[in-house]
C-alpha cells in the first residue's frame, strides 16, 4: 500500500481517479488536510514518515531541496493545463510511476500533448 499526497496546485479531482486506480493505496490532498498555503519546508516536515509519494506540478521542487534525505518520493506532473482531460491522458503512466517510485527520488510524468 502506498500513501499518496496530492499537492494543492493539482486539480483535486485527480485524487478520486488515483484512488479508483490504486484501491490498495491511500490518497489525500493538501487541501483536504488543511495544509494549503504552507511553505515547502513546513509541508516537507508534515509529509515525512506519513506519505510515500508526493505529487506536484512544481518543477523547481526537486532542485530546491535535498531529495536524498526524504522518506518519500516525488512525482512531478507536467500537463497541458489543470483540467481533468489533461490529467486523464497521463493517469495510466502516473499509476505505473507511483508503484515504482522509491524514497528520495523524483520521477516525471508528462502529458503527451505538452
Mean pLDDT: 94
Low-confidence blocks of residues:
none
Neighbour order of strands in the largest sheet: 2-1-3-4-5
> What distance separates the N and C termini?
31 Å
Order of helices and strands: EHEHEHEHE
Portion of residues in beta strands equals 15-25%
Number of helices: 4
Helix content: 25-40%
How many strand elements?
A: 5
The profile of the biggest β sheet is: 5 strands, parallel
SS-derived structural category: alpha/beta
Shape: globular
Gyration radius from CA atoms, angstroms: 13 Å
Q: What is the fold's blueprint, element by element?
A:
Elements: E1 3-6, H1 14-21, E2 26-29, H2 40-47, E3 53-56, H3 61-64, E4 73-78, H4 84-100, E5 106-110
Parallel strand pairs: 1-2, 1-3, 3-4, 4-5
Helix pairs in contact: 1-4
Structure description:
The chain is 32% helix and 20% strand. Helix 1 packs across helix 4. The model has no long low-confidence stretch (mean pLDDT 94). It is an alpha/beta fold and 114 residues long. The chain contains 4 helices and 5 strands, in the order E-H-E-H-E-H-E-H-E. The protein is globular, with a radius of gyration of 13 Å.
In short:
It contains 4 helices and 5 strands, in the order E-H-E-H-E-H-E-H-E. It is α/β, with parallel strands linked by helices and 114 residues long.
What brief labels describe this structure?
114 residues, alpha/beta, 5 strands, 4 helices, 5-stranded parallel beta sheet
